[in-house]
Automatic annotation (TrEMBL):
This is Discoidin domain-containing protein. The lineage of its organism: Bacteria, Bacillati, Bacillota, Bacilli, Bacillales. InterPro entries: FA58C, Galactose-bd-like_sf, GH. It holds the Pfam family F5_F8_type_C. Residues 680-817 form the F5/8 type C domain. It comes from Paenibacillus lignilyticus. Keywords: Signal. Residues 1-23 form the signal peptide.
């Protein structure tokens, strides 16, 4: 198999080296290639269009290019309507009947309204002789214009077959396809037209592979700075980063060993993580008694199942998408097998090449130092590295042998509790003494909705849930006669009713709502009791539901009395997901979220979290993190995930740009540097609200050297600072942009601090009013509160230096009064 892959690889690489194909957004009507427009051959759809125009509408067989809507130059189009079970990708396979040199390909996708569109499109091609496909481009849709065109330069490459893979953003999105314009390039076409492929033969083309990944698992079709080209480069990356991170550790003057923030205050120390409301704000409290906001990362293990990719097709034949797979002997740990086939994890093989002997321990040490440097403080969901001491949340999975109802299970089944307890007992008892364990979540993204109730109402008397509903309904509505009347039934007994299908349309929304809440209370009380019996030391953090999917507020409501904190997975842009839970007063966690962009062959998870660059990923994260931290119920969140997924797709086809680090173990430095700035300010935002001086215009009396500019004090980066000249009377002020009410200033001093200084406010930067003064400054952190004042400008006026140097501030923050 290896030799076959390599031969295929050499053919593919020869063609790839001869062309550079980039897709760009070109509005309809712009210039196109000057060659002859090809309107020859046939095409077939993988899924019959159920929207658009004839003759393509509902077509299942070959469409002649001369007759179909894709080549007619009109507004007629093919369309695929979105619905719950729509295929996420639609394919169009084109047969030109002979090899042609191609100049460009132009694909027009005009949408009737905003409900139409697409997420991305991959264009592939092959010659008659080739056994596999070459990728011309993967184009990610930019913008929301209804009239949209993708232009693909083909640079003279030769092709007979062209495949368009068009993917939806979500299942309900409709896909339009208006025109496919293929322009012939210079050169000689193939001799005579070959026999036309049948529809079945063309659809079989979809089983042919295209080369996707190089020997390090990187997208093979693009180049970028830092792309790995050798094992030596990987090893040099390790050497360089190890030096840079050599001294990274928690500063014991600022943090306790668990990452708790000492300056906020010392509270009861129980030896385990707990939750406490302090001045109206919820916090985790570490085992040593210090406040802690969870700033976590998910799926941080090398061995996380979601990072591997299949090496075989469903029929067991090799996927010819890899330039070269890792040596199966040297990198045996990178390979796994199950009943569905073989998988390779490029992360494992790359880490083995990078770190050498004892690779997992060396990688774990670097990973922990990275997270501390970036301001993360926990492993928040799914897997974690072996042997790395760091706070963590443990996900407890539901056993496979529970009685199921759709995506959930029958919480009323008397066998449910003993099955769960038997499954979890050993794990819980082994963890009960851990000081690093924050708490547990149980199950994942599976609440109850009306759909669950609709399903169980059709069950018979052998369903405990159906019996529980009838008992619940009888308690609410009394006699059998009254129940029969309300349900439109004529059951002779309640037991008979339990064995009779009930239409949910006969049940009031209030009764459905009440029953869902009862089910939730039954479920969460059961799980809480199992946890507390076997591990009384750790917190129960809910079941990470998705607020907009497979749950309901009725279900969520039922959980609240039984959980220590309520956790969700919310892939959104701000903290408004917490609004519907505020009335319950429970601490809130968001244990899965991230932002992704389409780059290097990867894509983003969903439209709400789509970004256009690595930097924008960081910016979006900072805005999201700060928005969440403002809520007094918020106690933490987790970024999904530590690594990107494989560019060649995981088992279910996902290949998302979600990592802090790529699969070659290289951090996204532009992104994590912004995350670091966000993390440095989250505790203050949780305490006091948004920093009004963040990114503000600043002025200072002096700057000792250019790299110590005044703006450094308000950029949110705890590693950059302002430094004045080496004289006493120096100042720095922030312009808040408008008159605002302020009552707090937070100063983080470098070693060059002020022994005597004032905090002053002004509306014109000319006349200043003192709001605070000290003659006994000692550096470090000064968290200064004063009576609320209206001001546009806030100034630190240094009067007497505390060292031979000037005044130097890492951070200068300003806050408004809060209601907490």
């Amino acid at each position: 198999m290896k030799n076959g892959v390599m031969m295929y690889t050499r053919i593919v690489l020869a063609f790839l080296m001869a062309m550079t194909a980039l897709a760009a957004f070109i509005p309809v009507g712009h210039a196109r290639g000057e060659g002859t427009m090809l309107k020859t051959g046939n095409y077939v759809y993988s899924v019959s269009p159920d929207g658009g125009n004839s003759p393509d509408l509902l077509s299942t067989g070959l469409m002649a290019a001369a007759k179909g809507v894709l080549y007619d130059g009109t507004t007629a189009y093919a369309g695929w309507m979105g619905k719950a079970k729509s295929p996420m990708t639609v394919h169009v396979v084109i047969d030109l009947l002979r090899d042609y040199p191609l100049d460009q390909l132009r694909v027009v996708m005009n949408s009737p309204n905003k409900y139409w569109g697409f997420k991305d499109m991959t264009v592939k091609y092959r010659t008659e002789a080739a056994t596999g496909y070459y990728i011309a481009t993967r184009h990610i849709r930019q913008g929301t214009e209804l009239n949209y065109t993708v232009n693909v330069p083909m640079a003279g490459v030769t092709a007979r077959f062209i495949v368009l893979d068009i993917t939806r953003t979500q299942a309900f999105q409709h896909i339009p396809l208006t025109e496919v314009e293929i322009t012939q390039g210079s050169g000689t076409p193939g001799q005579n037209p070959k026999p036309s492929f049948t529809a079945e033969q063309l659809k079989a083309e979809l089983n042919k592979d295209a080369l996707l990944a190089d020997r390090y698992g990187q997208w093979i079709n693009d180049a970028w700075p830092g792309k790995i080209t050798s094992d030596a480069q990987l090893r040099q990356n390790y050497t360089d980063e190890a030096v840079a991170l050599a001294n990274v550790a928690y500063d014991p003057a600022i943090y306790d060993p668990y990452g708790g923030i000492k300056r906020i205050g010392k509270y009861e120390s129980t030896g385990y993580f707990r939750l406490e409301q302090v001045n109206g704000k919820w916090w985790f409290i570490t085992p040593d008694g210090y406040p802690f906001l969870l700033k976590g990362v998910d799926a941080a293990s090398l061995w996380e199942a979601g990072y591997k990719t299949p090496t075989q097709k469903p029929d067991g034949t090799p996927r010819q998408i890899f330039e070269q797979l890792p040596d199966r002997t040297l990198y045996a740990p990178a390979y796994t097998k199950d009943e569905n086939g073989e998988y390779v994890n490029f992360i494992v093989s790359n880490v083995m090449k990078k770190y050498g002997s004892d690779y997992e321990a060396k990688w774990g040490d670097i990973t922990r130092k990275r997270l501390i440097q970036w301001g993360f403080n926990a492993f928040s969901k799914w897997t974690k590295p072996k042997g790395v001491a760091f706070p963590y949340v443990q996900v407890l999975q539901d056993p496979a042998n529970l009685r199921r109802i759709l995506w959930s299970y029958d919480v009323f089944d008397p066998q449910t509790a003993p099955i769960i307890e038997s499954s979890l007992k050993t794990q819980l008892q082994n963890a009960r003494a851990s000081k690093w364990l924050i708490g547990y979540t149980y199950d994942n993204e599976a609440g109850w909705t009306t759909d669950i109730v609709k399903e169980l109402l059709m069950y018979g008397a052998d369903s405990p849930a159906k019996g529980a509903f009838v008992d619940y309904y009888a308690t609410r509505h009394g006699s059998l006669d009254n129940v029969n009347m309300l349900l439109g039934m004529n059951a002779v007994s309640f037991n008979a009713l339990k064995d009779t299908p009930i239409a949910i349309t006969k049940v009031s929304s209030a009764d459905v709502s009440g029953f869902i809440t009862l089910a939730s209370e039954t479920y969460y009380a059961m799980i809480r009791d199992i946890l507390k019996r076997n591990d009384p030391n750790h917190l129960f953090l809910g079941s990470t539901i998705v607020p907009t999917w497979r749950t309901s507020l009725d279900w969520d409501r039922g959980a609240m009395p039984y959980v220590d904190a309520f956790s969700v997975d919310s892939y959104t842009r701000d903290g408004s997901w917490m609004d519907e839970y505020e009335a319950f007063g429970k601490p809130l966690l968001n244990l899965e979220h991230s932002f992704g962009s389409s780059d290097r062959g990867l894509s983003y998870i969903s439209a709400p979290t789509k970004t256009t660059s690595t930097v924008e990923r960081g910016v979006a994260y900072r805005a999201f993190a700060e928005s969440q931290a403002q809520n007094p119920l918020f106690v933490g969140s987790g970024w999904y995930a530590y690594f990107d997924q494989a560019v060649t797709g995981r088992v279910d086809g996902e290949s998302y740009n979600i990592g802090l680090v790529n699969q070659q173990d290289q951090p996204y430095t532009d992104m994590v540097s912004i995350m670091k700035m966000a993390h440095a300010g989250l505790e203050n935002i949780h305490l006091y609200g948004i920093n009004l001086a963040a990114g503000a215009a600043v002025a200072a009396s002096s700057t000792h050297v250019a790299m110590l500019a005044p703006a450094n004090a308000v950029d949110g980066d705890g590693a950059t600072r302002w430094g004045s000249n080496y004289t006493d009377n120096e100042w720095i002020y922030a312009d808040l942009g408008a008159v605002k009410t302020v009552n707090r200033v937070y100063l983080s001093w470098e070693a060059a601090y002020a022994k005597a200084y004032k905090i002053q406010v002004s509306n014109d930067a000319k006349t200043w009013t003192d709001v605070f003064a000290t003659t006994s400054g000692d550096g470090g952190i000064d968290d200064i509160s004063f009576s609320a004042k209206s001001a546009r400008y806030v100034r630190m006026l240094g009067l007497k230096r505390g060292s031979a140097y000037g005044y130097s501030l890492w951070r200068f923050e300003v806050f408004a009064p809060t209601s907490g």
